[in-house]
Amino acid sequence: MTNRKKIAAGNWKMHKSLLEGQGLVQEIRTMVQSELQNGATIMVFPPFIHLSALAKQCVGSNIIIGAQNMHQAEQGAFTGEVSASMLKSVGVHYVLIGHSERRQYFNESNQSCKEKIDTAILNEITAVYCIGETLEERNANQHFEIAEQQLAALKHLAASSFSKIVVAYEPVWAIGTGVTASSAQANEMHVFIRKTIANWFGEEIANGLSILYGGSVKPENAKELFAMSDIDGALIGGAALKSRDFIDIAKSL
Fold it and tell me: Residues 189-218: pLDDT tens digits?
């Protein structure tokens, strides 16, 4: 067995007012304390405006608060953007980078993701780097090729930087669609991701890397997914907005 971190990460996307978010985090915190005994790492990625309040609320708990995005520049004239040092200043130590919705709607590229990853690491923030293929790419049998192209944003890193990297594989065709990759399909990609990292950085780095699956993860399919050899947790969307579902997924780790 490896000592890879088992992670349940909830991406709230653009949901919940601050008050609703505080209520949800309180429910999660209570359930974690009373029910979670498997040592899983619990992460919550709320909207930017909640970060400060929720980070304070989670002091002394096992819940990590992360951001859904950040800008690659340290500072500057980037209206509406948030920098790594700003995140750090409110107690945030994790950030999602390259989520498929950011790639699709906000034109994020592998190059901009690479720059964001560098900035995160420089600021001692762990990057949860999201990769995944579209349905067209999957049907054209390009899923491995796409994954390798996206993973290339990590290829230049020093091996020591991998303590600040988590990879999340999210097939775009399974996000919010109710369609889940079969556990075998998901694991096949996780194995490929780990092998790619092993080719670049060696087995030790690859075997220590937590790789999460995202794409319509629910309490009903979590156990089967987590039973796979190379799936170390989940990046959870819709189910993370319900404390019961989120914790039931975490308990399956």
Answer: 999 999 999 999 999 999 999 999 998 899
What residues does each domain of the chain span? 7-251
Q: Active-site residues: which are they?
A: 99, 170
Between CA 45 and CA 167 the distance in angstroms is 15
**91-143 pLDDT, tens digit each:** 999 999 999 999 999 999 999 999 999 999 999 999 999 999 998 999 999 99
pTM: 0.96
Q: Which residues contact 104 (CB under 8 A, 6 or more apart)?
A: 172
Superfamily of domain 7-251: Aldolase class I (3.20.20.70)
